[in-house]
């Protein structure tokens, strides 16, 4: 590995310059005005895969934005690692809150990153992170140190739900056949805390409509005699969770995975400062399900949250009406082994059941995703742990994320492969927000660590 590490150090400036090329292109998948920029980014990604030494590099068309594929098959008897990433980014709005131009990357010193952080949309999510893999592979191929086969699949629709990725992988199962999937689209538990995400929560997302009278009513003439959909909806929502933070929907917890005390102790090894946590987000106290820590509440326990609620008059001044309708969007984060479709149906049935006869309720199931867990005994996890332990100089720890990456469960279902979530971002990268950034040290730590993953995985396979 000495030659690989030397190569990485000698080419650091070029690696940054090339990443900046990617970051300068506004590859916003959600906005059709940026279709040409999406194609430019796919072309540039293809160029960098070829430059890294990959073969069979191609841009694969879909009904949406294209997918970039490439591989390096050195021996079919060796294990194959499939690297997944995405080149599309979130819209940069609101632009006025950026301290620098979102698509003009700059390196600035910060309190967390005294050696500098790259500020740009996509720096951490996910151009900077998938590019670590491109450069790590380049270093290994250039120095004849690649110990196994590798395939790359970089898509352009992750930020809009990977709408066409499912069809692509189902139609290309043989092309994408692998033994393990490696993804860097998550975070470390802290800058100097080597850590691997071994669990993701699933998602059930619904929209509620509560309808009362056939039109908005005068609150003086009709107030007290007719149902107010906003009041009714608020009462119904407040009854979904009890005083102990427990969700009241019958059957909601039937399939919840209960971790052992040993597993919970392992999770608790991740350093966590509750006072800093509260201060960072500007709250005086926390709340949640009784009997669980803050980190457990946001990772191994299911939740129910109102993401939006509206109805009636919200303009300037007063308008005394009882609205005809009220609406809410509700998300439920799920844990292994909860099923998104089952939970959505349980919610719909229960919410309609508790509605008073004075209103009509329509519950629309919008979308969902399945939870995911990587066993800490798997070769993929053990290789990632050993790789991070090597480069950080301290034992890497497992943690579970509260977020959802639906395509990970899809990979397991279609490709029958586990995914290793070995990310190098931080929560302070403020992805999806103004001033997104990615530490320069984190970027190079990823490039340094990834070759060790290939080495240790090939040895354990």
UniProtKB/TrEMBL annotation:
The record's keywords, sorted A to Z, are: Hydrolase, Metal-binding, Protease
> Per the UniProt entry, what is one GO biological process?
proteolysis
Q: Which residues form the Peptidase M20 dimerisation domain?
A: 198-357
EC top class named in words: hydrolase
Q: A Pfam family for this UniProt protein?
A: M20_dimer
- Superkingdom to which the source organism belongs: Bacteria
Q: Which molecular function GO terms apply here?
A: metal ion binding; peptidase activity; succinyl-diaminopimelate desuccinylase activity
Signal peptide, first to last residue: none
* EC code(s) of this entry: 3.5.1.18
Q: Which residues form a coiled coil?
A: none
Q: Which NCBIfam families match?
A: PRK07907.1, PRK08201.1, PRK09104.1
Record's protein name: Succinyl-diaminopimelate desuccinylase
């Amino acid at each position: 590995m000495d030659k690989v590490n030397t190569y990485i150090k000698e080419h650091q400036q070029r690696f940054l310059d090339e990443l900046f090329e990617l970051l300068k292109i506004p590859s916003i998948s959600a906005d059709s005005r940026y279709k040409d920029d999406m194609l430019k980014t796919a072309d540039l990604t293809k160029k960098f895969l070829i430059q890294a030494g990959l073969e069979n590099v191609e841009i694969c068309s879909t009904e949406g934005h294209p997918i970039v594929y490439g591989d390096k098959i050195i021996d079919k008897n060796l294990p194959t690692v499939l690297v997944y990433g995405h080149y599309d980014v979130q819209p940069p709005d609101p632009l006025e809150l950026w301290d620098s131009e979102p698509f003009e990357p700059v390196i600035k010193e910060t309190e967390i990153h005294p050696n500098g952080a790259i500020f740009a949309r996509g720096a951490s999510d996910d151009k900077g992170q998938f590019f670590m893999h491109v450069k790590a592979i380049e270093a290994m191929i250039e120095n004849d140190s690649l110990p196994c086969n590798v395939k790359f699949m970089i898509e352009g629709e992750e930020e809009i739900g990977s709408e066409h990725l499912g069809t692509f992988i189902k139609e290309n199962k043989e092309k994408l056949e692998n033994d393990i999937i490696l993804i860097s689209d998550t975070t470390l538990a802290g800058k100097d805390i080597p850590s691997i995400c071994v669990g993701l929560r699933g998602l059930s997302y619904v929209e509620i409509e509560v309808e009362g009278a056939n039109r908005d009513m005068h609150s003086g003439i009709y107030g007290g005699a007719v149902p107010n959909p906003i009041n009714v909806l608020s009462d119904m929502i407040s009854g979904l969770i009890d005083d102990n933070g427990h969700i009241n929907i019958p059957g909601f917890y039937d399939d919840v995975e209960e971790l052992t005390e040993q597993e919970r102790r392992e999770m608790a090894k991740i350093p966590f400062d509750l006072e800093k946590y509260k201060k960072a987000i500007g709250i005086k106290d926390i709340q949640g399900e009784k009997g669980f820590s803050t980190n457990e509440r946001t990772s191994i326990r299911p939740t129910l949250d109102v993401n939006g609620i509206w109805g009636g008059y919200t303009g300037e001044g007063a308008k005394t009406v009882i609205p005809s309708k009220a609406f809410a969007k509700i998300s439920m984060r799920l844990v292994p082994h909860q099923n998104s479709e089952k939970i959505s149906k349980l919610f719909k049935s229960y919410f309609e059941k508790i509605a008073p006869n004075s209103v009509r309720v329509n519950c629309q199931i919008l979308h969902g995703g399945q939870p995911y867990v990587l066993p800490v005994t798997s070769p993929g996890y053990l290789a990632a742990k050993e790789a991070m332990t090597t480069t950080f100089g301290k034992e890497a720890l497992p943690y579970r994320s509260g977020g959802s990456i639906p395509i990970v469960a899809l990979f397991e279902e279609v490709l029958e492969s586990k995914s290793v979530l070995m990310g190098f971002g931080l929560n302070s990268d403020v992805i999806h927000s103004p001033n997104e950034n990615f530490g320069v040290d984190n970027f190079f730590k990823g490039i340094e660590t990834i070759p060790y993953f290939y080495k240790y995985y090939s040895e354990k396979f």
